[in-house]
Structure formats: structure tokens, C-alpha cells
């Protein structure tokens, strides 16, 4: 049985390209006692993975050149030497980008039947959904009537942030990179949505937030963030989740210093990664599942088909090609 | 009885100068029933007052051109029509820069006899000491063995921050602008002190913080802050207290964007002003008084004499002329 693997061919300088990735083929592995053989069903491509392609120290260890790239994967158990994971079980975990993988089951989460499509465990009920949940509800803690801005609002994290803020009774403003995405955000219930590629972002945000900004969930950074900082209310809370605007930068990004604005407003800026909240994950999944089942949360996926399309789906993240969760359906 | 007042002559562009201030003379006022006449004893000059000289919206309302400048003052009651403040009482409050002022007593705090020199109620036991207390102990929460950096360490706030961090068992690094200040910080018990005017600040901080930085109490901003951000440990806490490096800037300061560094470390950056903690002031004064009485806290003042010297003492803040609290002794 043939098994394709995608490896880091070289560390990208600036934007990754097709040459960043190397496909290799080997025999599918055979599970030993205590192991299962997993067949990859869905592969998640996420902006944070760009960081792991660099050698720089960050919150997750770098990928090694020549080694498989790894990330969120939904897989099916196709051979089992492990009682708790019988053949047919569906699991989600951090797994290599390959068609078949053996595992001892550690770090794998079994996907329960029923509540949602299995791919949602890479989205609404997985890392992006929980990132939105803890970043917004623990760090920002929006109150009814407050104004919440979310950048990258049409992404997997952002669209959940906006809907959660609406559940909490806030006024919600999203920024996104196309008119189609803006229209979609309005459909989801965002009060205002701004196409940052065509609008004067500072003017558009000021017009959309006449009472200032109480909470900012930042997935993007750069000029959108500069504009939000000018609108902060006293005791504003900023959840610093991502900086996709600068992930491919070849020089350290420079901009207006934010400290003066944060000082004048007694604002809080909190960087975080969803693993900071690992002990609270089950609580988050439960609440998100409940709101989804009640029709209070919608979710969207951009699904590409075919193992060989994984690099293209990843590269598309930086071109804004996806609305909602970017996934590759493998089998 | 003659009464001199110092007014804002014009809003400064860049650094204030002698021309920023206007002296006027009038008759000392007479207290009506329910009022006291206050004779100014000590005037506090503080970096934050530069912000009030600009028209820009900030956490405290701007001074008006032509109106008296006001700030922290220790005064003595010399005439009284108010039972609770008999003649001879000493008070501290936010009062105009003038020799005599009438007051209905609202917003004035009576200075208890005994625990410390009366001027300390503008320093260790006043706004600067409480700023250090709440910023460090509530926002940074240093733990024993952690590394704390404080910029502007030889100022009224910074020297208290460093000593409080030592009380909590942390390793403490201070930055200051002269070799004399550096020597003084060592005397106070700082583990390391760096003259940012002569050192390569990034190299010196990296050498002084071999285990990284867990807490940063920022009074200064600019390049010192850039260097600290490069050394942050996971879950670092930053109390954003002042930005004296940019208070006289004529253009919005620009620098490396910090968000990427704060994101990678799940760091918290919290802007604050001591009035955010108004309800907890008595607790803070009590604890600082106790540590001072026990000899665990020392304090330093740079006292200039004479009402006419108030503008010079203020301007000296931006030249780093003061060690500890800058005060003017008026009478």
C-alpha cells in the first residue's frame, strides 16, 4: 500500500511557494501491538503553520527540513491493535501530512458520532473554534452593548468570534478581504463588515464604531490594528490571536508604537495560544456544540479535494482564498 | 497678602520651555464659610503633566491655556471655616500651582502625623508609590525567582517598583540615565542596573537577564522597551505605566511592531493609571507605610526650593535631573 508524505523541503524566505514542499512515497506502515493504522480523511491548513516553517523560536517548535509537516488531521482507524480505538473509529489529532500513519493513540481525541460533521472537529469544535471561544470570552469578556472588532473576520476563528460576540449582545464589526466575504459576514449577523482592501480602513472603522471600541480580537495586525488602537475606549481588551499580515514578512515589521494609546485607555493586550486553555477545552467544546445544536452558531468551510492539493490550500490562506475553515479532503 | 499663580501660557510643541509658563500675581483669596485657606508647602512635578499640556484627549482632561496648572500639592491650613480641617492641618490633593488656595476640603486627604516626612505623601505614600504598588503587585504579580525589569528605575515610581520586586523575591534589573543613578540603584538592592545612555541596551539587558524577563514595568518606552520585548518569557506580564521617551515627540513615534513578540509568549500588556485602583488606595498606603517603617523600603527626593523654581523642576524631569521624586519646596 503506497503512502504519500509531504515534507518541508526548505525554510521559506518571505511567502512559501510550491518549492517549500516535497512529496515522498513509501510503503504504508504496519501497526505493531498497541498501535493503530490511521487513514487520513481531512487535513487542516492554518496560518500559524507558517511560523513553524521558520527556525525562529516560537510557541510551537519549528518543523525540521526534510521531516513531515504536521498539523490538525481527522483520520479513520483502518487497522487496530488497540482496544479503545476499534476499526472505524474517527479521531482528531496533531498528525503528519501523510495518507497513512501509525499511532499509539496518545494525543488523539475520538470524535463522537452525531453532533456535527466530522470535519468540524478541525474547525468550529476544534482548534479554531476554541481559539475564538477562549480568546473572546476569557480575554475580551464583551458585555451587552459594547463594541467588538474582529479582524480576519471571515476566517475560521473570526467568524466564530463575531457570532459569539453577538450571542453576548455586543455590536460586532468585522474586517475581511473581499466584498463576498463582507456580504457573508452580514448574513452571519455582523452589524458591520468592512472590506479592508477597498475601504479607507481608519475612516470606515471610525464610522462603524461611533461609540469607540471596547474589545478587539486581532487575527491580522498591521494597519487594521493601528486603526483600531485609535478608537479604543477606556479599559478596552485586546485578544492578540494572530498576525497574518506579517507572517511572510522578510524584515521585522515597523509601525506606530501602540503603547501610548494603550496607556491612555488603560487597555489590556493579551497574547495567547489556545493551548494556554488546555484544561478548559472540554467545557469549550460542550458550549460550542450546544450553541451549534441550537442554531445560534453557523460555520463555513472551504474544502479542497485531494492529498496533492494540501500545499495549494495552505498557500491560499495568505491570498485570502478561504472563507471559514480551509481544509483538504483526502479520502 | 500677595498670591502667585503659574498658568499654562501656551501649549508646547515638542519639549516645554520657560515660555510654556506664565506667572501672575493677585490678592490671596479669603475663605468663605465652609472653606479653608491653604498655604502651599510642596509642589509635585510629574512626567504625566506633560500630557495635560496638550489638547489631545487622554486619561486626564487637558489644562486650559491661561488657566492655572494643577497637580499634586502638600499644603497647610492657615485659615479655617471648616471643623474637620483646623488651622495647622496638613493635606495633600490635586491643587493649582499657586501659593494660597481656598478649598471646601473635597478631594483633600489629611496627612497623618508620624509615619513619614510630609513630602512623602507626594512620593512613596502618594501617587508614585501607589502607582508602583498596584502596577507591580496587581498587573505584574512577580513570583520569587522571576526576573523583573523596570525602566526609569531611578525615578519616584521606578525605585519603589524595584524594591517591591525585591521584597517579593524577584531578580530585579533597572535602567536609568546616569552612572550615579545606576550606583544608587545598586545601593537600593537592585541586582543589576544599566545606564541606557552609555550601554548597548539590547546586549546589556540580555546579559543581565540570562533567564529571560517575566515582568516588565515600563515608565519609558522606546528602544528600552523594544529590547525587553525580545527577552520575554512565556506568560510575561507588562505594566504599562509611562512613556516618557515620547512625551515630547512632535510626530507619532514609530518602532518595531510588538504584537508578534507578545503573541509568541502569550504575554500580557496592561496600560493603567493609578486612579484605576482608587478603591484600594488605603490598603496600598497601609502596606507601603508598614514596609517603610520596617526599613524594607527606602525613598529618595530631589527637592528644589522656591515657588518660582516650579517650571525649572518640571523641565528637569525630561533631562533626567531628578533621582527619585522631584518636588519643589515652596514655604
Automatic annotation (TrEMBL), chains A, B:
This is Enoyl reductase (ER) domain-containing protein. SUPFAM superfamilies: GroES-like (SSF50129), NAD(P)-binding Rossmann-fold domains (SSF51735). It comes from Hymenobacter gelipurpurascens. Coiled coil: none annotated. Gene3D superfamilies: Medium-chain alcohol dehydrogenases, catalytic domain (3.90.180.10), NAD(P)-binding Rossmann-like Domain (3.40.50.720). SMART domains: PKS_ER. GO terms for molecular function: oxidoreductase activity, acting on the CH-CH group of donors, NAD or NADP as acceptor. The keyword Oxidoreductase applies. Keywords: Oxidoreductase. InterPro entries: ADH-like_C, ADH_N_2, ER, GroES-like_sf, MDR_fam, NAD(P)-bd_dom_sf. Residues 17-328 form the Enoyl reductase (ER) domain.
